[in-house]
Structures are given as structure tokens and as C-alpha cells.
Design goal:
10 strands, Arc Repressor Mutant, subunit A
Length: 362
């Protein structure tokens, strides 16, 4: 355990370097935020808004029961991926003051290497036993620091293949909103951040205040951690060619408006025939067949997990109409979308995870 005294002697900033109002000592939930360069503004804002609405009395946005600090090694603002900048409210404070340290990630390929003081601070917090939270690609930051070994790690389906490429010895969980594994919490991002924040508020302040915050944000009720991400399921094919994995990622990221194969090839800096040959060698099918299979698997998930009509699902998947989707679905799965939705197999498909055998469990 790293004590406050040990922190002060570590060369990192102390309370004497605080910026703005002090952290409330009597707050029931205290959060420290570290924003990566090009961080996702929505992830940060959703989290803070739940704290703000739950921790106030009289709805005046006062940090009474919840208190938080945005920390940096210098007073320069942190730039979000949309260009909006956030001014830090403190330098690096003793991590023992916080109930959680939150690392907010963002553009995966727009995050420079951590500065030495920030890296040291996060590792110091981990050694002190302070729970660490990785929002969005903040999970990548924790993994790069070696702080997710033997722990489950939640990532967005959008970054599933990026994770496998960078951390081949770790297995991501890409079908849940967030994962709490002892003193490590990881969240896929998006609106799931509000659900995670509400869970922590409920743990520390009570479920009534968590529900109050969500209601003000026009969110009906908190979703539990195991709720499925409303996104395509990652493909379960073992891919050892980066060109194929990148092509599949582009397909996953462009479900509603499928990209022409020529555009995929251009983005990968290969010719169409070369891409077709690579897919045939690695997956035994054409890029078009892989793309269609991915869209249909997502369609099956939508049928099992959403109230969307077949026509709406067809539009969501980029099919011209419900009939076109229905014919392709029957060829792939041997049944029509309507029969599948009303049949006995839909219960198994609800919340299905095609990568169950690849997860890391205790």
C-alpha cells in the first residue's frame, strides 16, 4: 500500500499544487479524472453529469456528495477528439484521496505515449489499491501499463480487432457495457458510461440518487453490466493477416451503409483482386461473402434482442428492403427472420456471445 506520505516523497505533485477548489473531504464518492489526448468528450461528460446530478442537493450542480478533479501535470487543457478542450482543475493529487481514478481514452490512433509522470501516477494509484477505471480506450491504457493481467477487460466491439492485434495474450469482452473485476473497471464507452456511473453512485450513495440522476438525463433505468452492447458481434474467425483483420474491422464499422469492396481495397492500399485472393487464402470466402455474413449475424442479434421490425432491421443492415434481407437470412440460417424471432432458438440467441471460449476468467 502506498501511503499519502510515500506519495509526497515520490516526486509527484501534492495538495500544495492544487488548482481551483479543494476536493471535498466529506464527499461520499470522490473521483479523479485523467484525460488522454483526443479523449472522447461524451464518455467524460456522461460520467461527470451522473455524478453532478446525483451528488447535489436542490439541483444546483454543486459537488456535495460527489466530488471530482480533472488532473494533469501542467495547467494546459486536454483536447478532446472533437476539438473541445477541458481545463484541468488540479495537478496530480495523492491518489489515496480518491475512491476511483478514471482514465478517459479516445481516438485509439491519436493517443500519444503517456508522459512519464502520468504513467508513474497511474501505477502509483494501482499500487495503493485505488480502483482504476478505463473508459472507452482507457482500457488500452491500462493494458499497456500491464495493469490488466489476469483481469477481464471490456472493450467496444468497434475496437475489438485493434485490441486483439495489440494484446494477443489478452482476450477482450466485447458483448457487455462494462466489466467490474476487483479493483479494475473497464467500460466500452458511449452511453454505457452513464450506466457505469449510475452503478457506482448506487453503490456509494444509494440507488435512489442514481435513478434520480438518470431520470434527469431522460434515461429510463440503469442497464446492468452484462447488458449487451447494441452492436455487431465480433467475428470468430482466427485471422493472422493484418489486411484481413483491418478489412473486417472496416466492415464492422460500416454496417448500415456497406462499403463497396473497391473502397475497402483502396483503404487497405491493395487491389480488389489482391484482396479477394487474401480472403480466399485466409478465410476461404470472398470479401463480399464475409461482409454479408457479418451483416446477417448482426441481423440475427437484432431480431433476438430488439423490438425493431424486420423492415427496420433490413434498413439498419443496408438491405434494400425486408424481402431482400429475408431471402439472404434464409440462405444463411435456413429460416426466415419472422420464423426465427418466434421460434424456440431465439432465447439461445438472445445475448449470445460467439467468443465465449476466448474470454479470460478467474
Amino acid at each position: 500500500m502506498v501511503t499519502g506520505e510515500a506519495f509526497l516523497s515520490s516526486g509527484l505533485s501534492s495538495d500544495a499544487h492544487r488548482v481551483g477548489s479543494p476536493l471535498r473531504k466529506d464527499a461520499k464518492l470522490r473521483m479523479g479524472f485523467i484525460l488522454m489526448h483526443n479523449f472522447t468528450l461524451a464518455a467524460f461528460a456522461n460520467f461527470v453529469d451522473v455524478l453532478r446530478l446525483a451528488g447535489d442537493k436542490g439541483d444546483r450542480s454543486r459537488p456535495i456528495d460527489c466530488s471530482w478533479k480533472v488532473m494533469n501535470t501542467r495547467r494546459s487543457p486536454a483536447r478532446s477528439s472533437c476539438g473541445i478542450e477541458i481545463q484541468p482543475t488540479a495537478e496530480l493529487l495523492d491518489p489515496a484521496q480518491f475512491d476511483y481514478i478514471v482514465i478517459v481514452g479516445g481516438l485509439l490512433h491519436g493517443m500519444p505515449s503517456l508522459s512519464e509522470p502520468i504513467e508513474k501516477y497511474i501505477k502509483t494509484a494501482a499500487a495503493a489499491g485505488v480502483p482504476l477505471i478505463g473508459l472507452c480506450t482507457g482500457s488500452f491504457v491500462l493494458c499497456r501499463l500491464g495493469l490488466m493481467n489476469q483481469r477481464k477487460c471490456c472493450v467496444s466491439w468497434y475496437h475489438y480487432r485493434d485490441f486483439l492485434e495489440e494484446f494477443p495474450k489478452l482476450v477482450p469482452i466485447a458483448d457487455r457495457l462494462f466489466v467490474i473485476d476487483r479493483d479494475r473497471i473497464t467500460c466500452a464507452g458511449g452511453t454505457g458510461v452513464a450506466d457505469l456511473a449510475a452503478r457506482l453512485v448506487a453503490d456509494h450513495l444509494g440507488s435512489a440518487l442514481a435513478q434520480k440522476a438518470l431520470n434527469i438525463l431522460l434515461i429510463d433505468r440503469p442497464r446492468p453490466a452484462e447488458s449487451a452492447q447494441p452492436a455487431p458481434r465480433p467475428t470468430d474467425d482466427a485471422v493472422d493477416d493484418t489486411r484481413v483483420s483491418r478489412a473486417l474491422l472496416l466492415m464492422e464499422q460500416n454496417i448500415s451503409e456497406p462499403l463497396p469492396i473497391s473502397v475497402l481495397a483502396h483503404r487497405l492500399h491493395v487491389g480488389v483482386r489482391q484482396l479477394e485472393r487474401i480472403f480466399a487464402e485466409r478465410l476461404g470466402e470472398t470479401p463480399h461473402e464475409s461482409y454479408l455474413a457479418l451483416r446477417l449475424r448482426h441481423g440475427r442479434w437484432l431480431l433476438a434482442n430488439t423490438p425493431l421490425s424486420i423492415g427496420q432491421i433490413a434498413a439498419e443492415l443496408g438491405f434494400s428492403d425486408g424481402s431482400h434481407f429475408g431471402r439472404a437470412f434464409k440462405v444463411k440460417f435456413g429460416t426466415t427472420p419472422a420464423a426465427f424471432r418466434s421460434g424456440p432458438t431465439v432465447g439461445h440467441a438472445r445475448g449470445m456471445n460467439e467468443n465465449e471460449d476466448r474470454r479470460v476468467f478467474e
